[in-house]
Design brief:
This is Glyoxalase family protein. InterPro entries: Extradiol_RC_dioxygenase, Glyas_Bleomycin-R_OHBP_Dase, Glyas_Fos-R_dOase_dom, VOC_core. It holds the Pfam family Glyoxalase. Helices cover 16% and strands 35% of the residues. By secondary structure, it is α+β, with helices and mostly antiparallel strands. It has a single domain, classed as 2,3-Dihydroxybiphenyl 1,2-Dioxygenase, domain 1 (Roll), CATH 3.10.180.10. The chain has an eight-stranded mixed sheet. An eight-stranded mixed sheet has the order 6-7-8-5-9-12-11-10, covered by helices on one side. Strand 3 and strand 4 form a beta hairpin.
């Protein structure tokens, strides 16, 4: 069993409009845009990062906003819900705030946690959950005070036709099985980033999802450094997984592999971080381009939608 995985690092999804996406995450959810860059493989499309003050691992939601992309179809073989951690007692505040900005807001109890579930205009599933033992500081720079601010992820729910193989993989990655309620089983990793839970929802007769706007592209798990990442990569290869070489993503190094249930996993390093090319006071303000796309800057600065603050 691995011991290098430290919970979630980030989540990456697809959106249909960059301006709307930026407004929802910075204004409605109050997160900080910590990086404005482009998709490595499609540089005419933004890659936007939202998180806490410095984009700590376990706090960062990232997006590829393909303009006017068709909505994905919900189903199995995907991350169906991403869950943010908020302070105890803050759900009434979030009910008011989300009621004006999100769709399908509902109050639920999940493994004894009070939650509000909601959807973006693209149909992506989210929740805010009251978590009592989360000591992380939320970002308050966008007008939400510390008593209510999102502190990062709490976890995520994967929807699968059969959870058996995924459960084995998570346990191999260092997650412990915590509890099963109905068709949902919770797993957690100790001493992680704070984004420490994964729930597996088994939906045997539900068709597979089809990716599009509102779909999670991949879920990324955190390791401290490149040495730990190489250890994880070797262990996965030895177990039979097809794992990519290490890829430099400018703000972390990444490896990817497809899981038995169809979900794309990434293992990302906590180093070097989002302040490697911007002062912390000005994260996410300038357009930062990968070296290979710097020659495209004049075109991209004209082509990409202005986002505002």
């Amino acid at each position: 069993m691995l011991n290098q995985i430290k919970g979630l690092h980030h989540m990456t999804s697809i959106a249909s409009d960059a301006v709307e996406n930026n407004a929802f995450f910075t204004q409605a959810l109050g997160l900080r845009r910590v990086k404005k860059t482009v998709n490595f493989d499609a540089p005419d499309v933004y890659h936007l990062y939202y998180g806490d003050e410095v984009g700590n691992p376990g706090s960062v939601m990232t997006y590829f906003p393909f303009q006017d992309a068709a909505k994905g179809r919900r189903g199995t073989g995907e991350v169906g819900e991403t869950v943010f951690s908020v302070p105890t007692g803050s759900l009434p505040y979030w009910a008011d705030r989300l009621g004006a900005a999100a769709e399908g807001v509902q109050s639920v109890d999940h493994f004894g946690e009070k939650r509000l579930t909601f959807r973006t205009s693209d149909g992506e599933g989210f929740a805010v959950a009251e978590v009592t033992d989360d000591n992380r500081d939320g970002w308050t720079g966008n007008g939400i005070d510390a008593d209510h601010a999102i502190r990062g992820f709490h976890g995520a729910t994967m929807r699968l036709q059969d959870t058996g193989a995924m459960a084995e993989l998570l346990q191999f990655m260092g997650y412990d099985k915590v509890e099963t309620r109905g068709n949902v089983t919770r797993f957690a990793v100790a001493e992680g980033t704070g984004a420490n839970t994964i729930d597996l929802e088994e939906l045997k007769s539900t068709p597979h999802a089809s990716q599009g706007a509102g779909s999670v592209h991949h879920i990324a798990f955190a390791v401290e450094n490149r040495a730990a990442q190489l250890e994880v990569r070797k262990a996965l290869l030895d177990t039979g997984y097809q794992v990519t070489p290490v890829i430099d993503r400018d703000y972390f190094w990444a490896i990817y592999f497809r899981t038995p249930g169809g979900v794309l996993f990434e293992v990302a390093t906590n180093e070097p971080g989002f302040d490697r090319d911007e002062d912390r006071a000005h994260l996410g303000e300038g357009l930062k381009l990968p070296t290979q796309h710097e020659r495209l800057r004049p075109f991209l600065e004209q082509h990409l939608q202005p986002l505002g603050n």
